[in-house]
Amino acid sequence: MVKGARAIAATMVMGLFAAGCQAPGGPPSWGTSVVKETDGFGDYYETVINVPAPTGAPRAFSCAGPWGPSTSDTVLKGIFGGGRAVQATDVLRPDGTTGPGTIVLPNDPQLRVSVAWADGFAYAGPIRFNFTEQSAWSVNGVRIGSTIADLERANGKPFRLVGFGGDAGGVVTDWQGGALANLPGGCNLTVQLAISALAPASAQAKVVGPKVFLSTDRNVRALKPTVGRFWVMYN
């Protein structure tokens, strides 16, 4: 039963990318790759997939190609290789719980990406991409260490964020219809800003707690917050 379902899912992925690759004027491709897998019953099989070419530089993340809505664990193994490069494990989900996922390049904190799957049986349908606090990836120009001014330039306008302190402190709550509100490919970016623990307590007290602030707030900007974490989710 498991083998049959995984094989069907893999065949569907193969057909999808094959159609896109072979159609005149279709998306560019890196060529084909063979994914070798063993299911829970010890049965072995191979799947040949067409690997979509990335749409940006290697460290410019976009919701297309390997990270598109039709990607799966099988596709990622075809692109990055199996074994230690792509590992199945439980990862953080949008609701804060953990569930079936895949970690790409788990041994490289700068390039590691963890993917939470909507379909935990076939390991397909990405719903959240998590990045480390040392990530070298960027999303629409946003990266670890980006300033509020950087975010406003990327967004094209100011935005709203929750006050600092606690697990959700500094999270952007509303891009106010700017460019970062909805990214190409149907996904969205969430950013969490961080401030220095060495900042004066009196200055921090003005921007902590559940209150929502505009990015133009002078008390917020006085602390010079930078992007400490970010993640991407599909709508």
UniProtKB/TrEMBL annotation:
Signal peptide annotation: 1-18
Keywords in alphabetical order: Signal
Protein origin, superkingdom: Bacteria
Protein's UniProt name: Lipoprotein
Species the sequence originates in: Azorhizobium caulinodans (strain ATCC 43989 / DSM 5975 / JCM 20966 / LMG 6465 / NBRC 14845 / NCIMB 13405 / ORS 571)
Species lineage: Bacteria, Pseudomonadati, Pseudomonadota, Alphaproteobacteria, Hyphomicrobiales
